[in-house]
Amino acid sequence: MFENINAFSSKRIYRIAGFSIIFFIAINIAVFAIISSYSQTSRASEILPDNNVCNFAFEDFNDVEKLITEDQKSKIFLLGDSVSYGIGVADESESVTGYLRKMHPEYSVYNLSSCGSKPLDYYLWTRYLTELDPNSDNVFVIQYNYKWFNGNSGKLKDKISQKRILFEFNKYLDDEIRDGLEFYPRYFEQISHSLEKSIPVSANKTKLFAAIFNEKSKEDFIKHLFFGKPERNSFEYKQKQWNEKDEMRSFNCKIAYSATEWNPKNNFNFDVYLKTLAFIEKNDVNAIVFLPPYNQELVRKCSNEKFNRNVYKFLINADNRDVRNAEFTKAIDQSNFLDDMHLDAQGNKILAENISNSINKF
Asked: What is the pTM of this model?
């Protein structure tokens, strides 16, 4: 009676597995064709792990190599966090990237900024892009942030913005960085990353695959499906993380504009910053490094007497390696801030003008 049960069961399992795979691929293709992309070439936004709400302005991580290698012009690569990305402004033309494109039509300007980016992100991107496009006229504009040197850098999310960058740029991780990261990708993470690269929709299109496994992506997928592209709400999403303006100010006084002097010893993010400067110097890369403009009114309210010393400590390392500094690591009027950290369109224009002045010196 049960003599054929094993054969029957295995055949049935194969059929169910095959049907499931075909069904999943078909759904992905259907969604890919019907629903518009999350991102646009001019401006992108997506929900990423660890509350990362914006990403570099390309449709897909895998598109970067194709776009850059096919582009014959000299390039400006902008690497930064939400400040350089331009979170909160209505249009790409009001971002730093938009202004730089107008000021430097002789260059192609690529905004590879991502909210929450850390010094390791910039190091890996610089290594990758220098190898991908060794044009000696390319310019790297790298925006660091005060808080990554002063905050707690003990957790993985305080050392890298996205785990997928570790997978993409694994070959640039030396033993020193690996020891500092203490990151060992789990088997499931490796499979997940492989699927996200191989299934077309899994990257930045609809995040259907990620929506199954990640709460943030699930929420974003639903918003996208019913309410349109999430980049329209990305700044609003950020603001929801704060209950009161005073709470944001308290956080920024403690982390971003801290009165505590940086301690460069055993500081992973500062060590990677120095490693990036050494790579730039050794390979004769045209590079500008800077800290973003700061809100003078907020620094005053933070009663911060050591802030300028921290800025000097950052800049002196770049000066010692003949790396250009864009001369706007300084206060600008608080009316040019959307909040206590991010800039409005006029603030971004001031930023772009100072970057442009430094670019013109190359």
From this structure: 0.76
